[in-house]
Design brief:
The complex is a heterodimer of chains A (332) and B (261). Helices cover 36% and strands 30% of the residues of chain A. Chain B has one domain. Helix content of chain B is 77%, strand content 0%. Chain B has 12 helices and no strands. Classes of the chains: A alpha/beta (332), B mainly alpha (261). The interface between A and B is medium-sized, with 32 and 29 residues. Bound molecules: adenosine-5'-triphosphate and magnesium ion. Adenosine-5'-triphosphate (ATP) binds next to strand 1, strand 2 and helix 2 of chain A. The site of magnesium ion has 3 residues of chain A, from helix 2.
Chain lengths: 332, 261
Amino acid sequence: MRLSRSLAYARNVAVVEVEELARTYRTSTGILRRRTVEVEAVRGVSFEIAKGELFGLLGPNGAGKTTTIKMLITLLLPTAGTARVLGLDVARNAREVRKRIGYVFGGDRGLYERLSGLDNLRYFAELYGVEPRVQKLRIQELLQLVGLAGREREKVEGYSRGMRQRLHIARGLLHDPEVVFLDEPTIGVDPVGARELRATIAALTDAGKTVLLTTHYMFEADALCDRIAVIAQGRIVAQGTPQALKAGVGEGTVVEIEVYGIEDAVVERVRALDGVSNVGLEARDQKQVLVVQTLPGRELVHAILGHLHGSEVGRVSSREPTLEDAYVALVE
Amino acid sequence: MKSVRVFFVGGLISYRALFSWLNPWVYVPSFLVMPIFQILLFVYIGRSAKLQSDSFYVIGNALQFAAIPCLFAMANTIAGERNQQTLGYILITPARRLPLFLGRALPVATNGFFVALFALVAGSAIVGTHVAASGYAPIVLVIAVSAFACTGLGLINAAIGLVARETAVLSNILFGGLLVLSGANVPVHDLPIVLRQVSEGVPLTHGIAAARKLASGSSVGSVLGLLGAEALIGLAYAALGYALIRGTETLSRRRATLERA
Ligand SMILES: Nc1ncnc2c1ncn2[C@@H]1O[C@H](COP(=O)(O)OP(=O)(O)OP(=O)(O)O)[C@@H](O)[C@H]1O
Ligand SMILES: [Mg+2]
C-alpha cells in the first residue's frame, strides 16, 4: 500500500487526493434549553488533482466548497474520509502540509486593518518563514503581480474591496507554495482587474503549481479550469473537463426566447416536447427568458413557438451550450 | 532562527496590528493619566481614614495598574484575531505556536512595565513620597517581574477571550479582583482568611510586597523570596494560558469553533 502510493506520487499522478471526505458541523443554540443542530456540509467527496492542474470546484451557496477547502488546508479535521496533499495526510501531517500550500479566500475581511498592506505581507512572510533576505524582493514582486505597488504603505482600513482581494492573493503566494487553494479569488474585483487576476492564476499552473479554484463565475471556470467537479448538497454530482460537462448537457443547441408573463402550463408543455432535454425560465432585466436545451440534430424552434402562441414573444436566438447551462442542469 | 523572528519581529507587528490603544489619544489618558487618579484616590482615602502611609498606596497602585495594559493588551492581541477574522490565516501557517503566541506577550509585558514605572515615578513626585536610593534598581527589576507575571494572567484571559469573542468584561473583572486581592490597597493580612489564600496565588501580590520593602530600604537579599514567588506565579499562569490557547486551537479543528467569525 505504502509502496504503491509513493510510486504513484513519484510519477506525479496526484498532488491532491481526496477520498470519501466528509464533514459534519455540530452547533448548539440557546443558553437554557440547548439544542444541537447538525449540518452535513460535505458528505463523502472524492477527487484527485494532478500536478500542474487547475481544478475547479463549482456548486451553489452552501454546497460545501469552502468546507472542503478548509479540510484540505488543515483548518478543519474531516469527520470521515481522508485527504492527502503532496502525499501528506492533512489530518496527521498538518504542519508539513501547511508549509507547502497557499490559501486565498475571497472577501474583504481577514486582514489587519490597522496595518499597512506591506506590514500585513511582512507579518505573514515571517509566519511562513520566508528568509529575511528574500522577503523584501518577494513582497515587491507580489505587489507588482497583483497591482498594488505604490499603495502598499497605506493602511488596509482605507483599501477598497478589490485592493483587499489583491492583498489576499499576494499573501497566499508569499512562500511560493506548490499547491494553491483559491476560494472565490476574483469576487469584488473590477472586470479589468479580474481579467488580470485570471491571467495570474493561469500563470500559476504554467509555473508548475497545482491550483484548486472555486468560483461562481462560470465563464471564469470555463476559461481557467482543466477539470471541474460540480458539488451540490455536499456531494459531487459531476466531474470532468469543461468540454465534457458541456457535452453532458447534450451536444444539441440552446434556444433562448424572450417572453413576457408566460404561464407555468406553457413551460410544462414545452418541456414535454420530444427532443427537449431541459427547460428553464430566467429573469433578465424587465423580461423573462425561456431557455430550452434541445437534443442534437433537432430543429425545435417552430414547435416551441407553436406552444407559445398567444403569449407575447420577443427575440429568439439559439446558441451552443455553455458551462453555465451544464451547471444549471446539474444542480437543479 | 525562524522562530526567533516570529517571536520578536512577528510579536511586535501583531501587537501593533491588534492593540488599538497605541494611538496617543487613547494611550496617554488610559495609561498615563488614569493610574495617577487611582493613586490619588487611594492616597486620599488612606489619609482621611488614617490607614496606611502614602508610600503604601503609591507603590501598590502603581504596580497594580500594570494589570490594565497586561490584561487588556494581551487579550486584544490574541483574541482580537477573531474580530479581524485573521485567525484562520494564522492557524494555517506552519509557524511554531510558542513563539507565535508568546511573542505577543513580550510587547505587552514591556508596555505594562513602562506604565507601572511611569505611575510610580509620577505618583511619587505628585504625592511627595520617597524611595530609598538603594531601592531604585531592584524596584525596576521587581516591576519588570510583576508585569511579566501579570501578562501570564493576561494569557489565560486571552485564551478565554478567544472562545468567548469578548475581552473587556473579563479584563475588567480581573483588574477589579487584583485591586482587592493583590495587597495594593488592603494589606493582605487584613483580608478574610479565604481571600488571603487567593491573594497568595495571584500575580502582583508578591511583587508589590517586595517593592514596598525595597522602597523602605530593605536589602535585595531580603526580597529574593518574594521576587522568586512572583516569577514562579507568572510562569505558572503563562504556561496555563498557553496550554489553554493550544487546547482551543486543537479543539477548533475538530469542532470548527474558532474559524466562525
Ligand atoms: N463553522 C460552521 N458551523 C456550522 N455550520 C457551518 C460552518 N461553516 C459552514 N457551515 C455550513 O456548512 C454548509 C456548507 O458551507 P460552505 O461554506 O462549505 O459552502 P460553500 O459551498 O462554500 O458556499 P458559498 O458558495 O456560499 O461560499 C452550509 O450549510 C453552512 O451553513
Ligand atoms: Mg464558500
